Amino acid sequence: MSFYVYILTNTARTVLYTGVTNNLERRLHEHNKGLGEAGKFTGRYQCNLLVYFKTHPNATQAIAREKQIKNWTRNKKEYLINLLNPSWEQIDL
């Protein structure tokens, strides 16, 4: 089973959300369904555009990477996104 670390943003590209899941398609559907709950981060900031993801072979590695990215500065996260998706276009699965 694969695990995914992903980064979502809003249409203005002003907010970044980092998450981890074992089913990226399902998780994106959950985020996109009504843009999440208003009280939750992705719903409050309307983060529903997938701009980065990376596959990991197990949960331990994926969770460690998610924690690492969450501790990064905004600039470092932007650099990571720009390496694979310089136009910050929505990644379709």
Largest β sheet strand count, sense and barrel closure = 3 strands, antiparallel
User: What value does the Rg take, in angstroms?
Assistant: 12 Å
For the biggest β-sheet, the strand order reads: 2-1-3
Cα distance, first to last residue?
Answer: 17 Å
Please state the structural category: alpha+beta
Low-pLDDT parts are none
Pattern of helices and strands: EEHHEHH
CATH superfamily: GIY-YIG endonuclease
What would you call the shape? globular
Number of DSSP helical runs: 4
Per CATH, what is the topology? GIY-YIG endonuclease
Query: Strand tally, please?
Result: 3
Protein name: GIY-YIG nuclease family protein
Pfam families: GIY-YIG (PF01541)
Family: Belongs to the UPF0213 family.
InterPro entries: GIY-YIG_endonuc (IPR000305), GIY-YIG_endonuc_sf (IPR035901), UPF0213_domain (IPR050190)
Q: Could you describe the 3D structure shown?
A:
The protein is an alpha+beta fold and 93 residues long. The protein has a single domain, classed as GIY-YIG endonuclease (3-Layer(aba) Sandwich), CATH 3.40.1440.10. It is built from four helices and three strands; from the N terminus they run ββααβαα. A three-stranded antiparallel beta sheet has the order 2-1-3, with helices on both faces. The two termini are 17 Å apart. The relative contact order is 0.23. Belongs to the UPF0213 family. This is GIY-YIG nuclease family protein. It holds the Pfam family GIY-YIG.
